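Figure S4 source data
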Amino acid sequence: MTVSTATNHTSDPVSLGRDRYQAMADRVLGGESISRDEALSILKTPDDEVLDLLSAGFRIRQKHFGKTVQLYFLMNAKSGLCPEDCHYCSQSKISTAPVPKYNILKRDDLMEAARLAAERGAKTYCLVISARGPNERELSAVEQIVPEIKEKYNLDICACLGLLSREQADRLKACGVDRVNHNLNTSEDHYADICTTHTYADRVDTLRNVRDAGMEMCSGGIIGMGETHDDVVSMAFDLRDLGVQSIPLNFLNAIEGTPLQGNSDLSPQDCLRALAMFRFVAPDRELRISGGRELHLRSLQPLGLYVANSLFVGDYLTTKGQAPEADYDMIRDLGFEVTKSTC
C-alpha cells in the first residue's frame, strides 16, 4: 500500500486561518449572522492574516455592492460654537483647537458647495452644523435650501444637525432630506467617557425619530478613543439592529486642543480589521471609510475598499482630506467605479 506524502492544505496553519474567514463569509452570504464572539475574533486577526480576512469580506461586499464606490461631500455649514463636550471634537465647548467659528452659512455659500459636490462626482451632499440640535432659524434655512439643491444639482441630501425631535425630523422629511446622520460614536458602556452633556440614549432616540419620519439613518462611530474591542463590537451590533442603512467609520484624528489629543495609536491593520468586522456584522449596509483614513490607513487606503463601499471626497469638517484626484485614481486602479446619484 502506497501512502501519499502530499500535504492536505487544511492541515497548514496559514490555510486554517484563510478557510475560517471564507467559511464565515459563506455563512453570511447564506443569510446567517455572525456571533459577537466571531466579531471579536475578527478584531484580533493576526496581521499576517488580514489579507485573507479582506478577501473573504470582499465576497460579501461584492454581493451587495459589486465594485461600486459611493462618494460623499461634507459641508461644514456652521462651525464651532457648540455647547456639547464631545471629547474628540475640535468644535466642542471644551476644545481649544483653533477652528473657524461662524453661524449657518448663507444660501450662496451652501449652493456653491453643492455645485462643488456635483463637480466632484459625489452622490450625496452632507450638510452639517455644530450644535446640540438645530434652532428654528437653522432648521428653516435647511428647509429652504434643500429643495433648491436637489432641483439644480440632483444630489441626495444628508443632514447632520444634532439631536432631533420627531417634529423636526418630520420637517426635514417634508423638505426633501433623504437621510440624517447622527453617529452613535462608541458603545453605550463607553459613552460617558467621551461625552457628558448628552447620553447614548439621546442619540438612539434621534435615530428612531429619523426612522419613524421615513428617512434613512446614517450612523457610525469613531475607532481609537480608548474603547475596548467589546465596545467596538457592541456599537456594530447596535447599529445593525437599529436598521441603520449607512455606516461611516471614522478613525480618531486626535486634534491638539481636544481632551483626546495624542490618544490614538491605530495601525493600518487595526483600521482594516474594524472595517472588515463591520462588513461581516452588517453585510448589506453601506460602509463608509470616513475621517482619519488618510492619517491611519495611509498607503493601505485602497485595501479598505475591499470591504467598504463609500468615501468622503475632499475635506472633513475641520481637517483636510487627500486631494479628490487621489481618490479617483485609487478607485480606478482598483477596477471599481463611482456610483452616481439616484435622485
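Figure S5 source data
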Amino acid sequence: MTSPDLFGSNNLSTLALKSKAIYLAENHTMEIYVGATAPMLCNSTYSYLCNESKPLSLPDKSEHQQYIIGLFLSCLYTIFLFPIGFVGNILILVVNISFREKMTIPDLYFINLAVADLILVADSLIEVFNLDEKYYDITIICTFMSLFLQINMYSSIFFLTWMSFDRYIAVAKVMRSNIFRTMEHARLSCGLIWLASISAALVPFTAVHLQHTGEIYFCFADVKEIQWLEITLGFIIPFAIIGLCYSLIVRVLVRAHKHRSLRIRRQKALRMIVVVVLVFFICWLPENVFISVQLLQKTEPVPSRSQSFRHSHPLMGHIVNLAAFSNSCLNPLIYSFLGETFRDKLRLYIEQKAKVSALHRFCQATLKSVIPDSTEQSEV
C-alpha cells in the first residue's frame, strides 16, 4: 500500500502539473497556432492540449490553390507547347540544313534563332515544374537556369534586331544591299551576335560572383544590377531600334506605291519578321514588367530570401516564365505558316523521305523474291 504522505505528494504533483499546463495554455495560445516552437507543448505530458487537429489557415489554402493552378499551367505547357517547340525547332534545323544550297540570308538568321529557341525549350522542362522555387535555393542550379535564360533572351532579341536592320537595308538600300548583304557577312554577323549574347550574360555574371564569393544562398538572378541590365539591354534598347527600323521601312513601302508588284513582294517578305517580333514582344513583356515592378518597389533589406518579390508572388512569377518560354515554342509555327520558302523546302523534304521510304520497301520486296529467306528449310 502507498503511504498517505506519498499519496498526497502525488496529488500535489499532479495538480502542479495541471496548473502549469493551464498556465502555459493561457499564456502561449498564439504560440500554439503561429509559433515556430509550438509543437513542444504537444508532448506526452500535455497531450490533452493538442487533441484537436489544427485547421488549414487561409494563407496555407491560398498557397495550395496557387500551387495547383501553377501545376495545371505547367501541364498545359508540357502537353501542348513543349512538343511544338522541341520538334518544330529541330525540324527547322533539319530541313534548312538538308537544303543548304538553297539557303538564303534570312534562313540563316532563322536557323540561329531556332538554335537559341531549342536550347531554352529543352531547358524549360526543369523550370516549368519549379513550382515551389526550391531550385532557387541551390546556388548552382539557380545560376545555371538564369544563364541559360539570359543567353537565349539576348540571342533571340539580338537576332531579331539584326534581322529588322537587315530588312531595312534590303528594302531601303536596294542597290547597296548587294554589297553588304552577302552570305559571308551574314555568317560573320551570326558569330558576332552569339559572342555578344554570351558576353552580355557571362561578363556581369563573373563580376557579380567575384563580389559574392562564398555566399550559400546567393543567386545570380536576384542581383538588381543584373536585372536592370536585362531590361535595358535585352528589351528596351532593342525594341527602340526595331521600332525605328520598321518605321523607316513603312516610309519606303508607302513611297513605293508606283511599283505595286514590288511593294507586294516586299510586304510578304516583311510579314513573317513583323509577326515574330510582335510575338516576342507579347511573350517577353510580362517578364520584363514583373522584373521592373520588383526593381521599382521600395522594400527594406531583409535577411531572408523568402521575402523577395518573386517569392511573395510565386504564381505570377510562374506565369510570366511560362509566357517567356512560350515564345520559343511559337516561333516554329510562325516560321512554318508564314515562311513560303520554308513550306516549299518542307514539302520537298517530305517528298524525298517518302520516295526513299518507298524505294526502301521496293528493294526489300525485290530481295525477298530473289533471295530465299534464310529461315526456310531447303528441300532435298
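The chain has twelve helices and no strands. Residues 17-54 form one domain.
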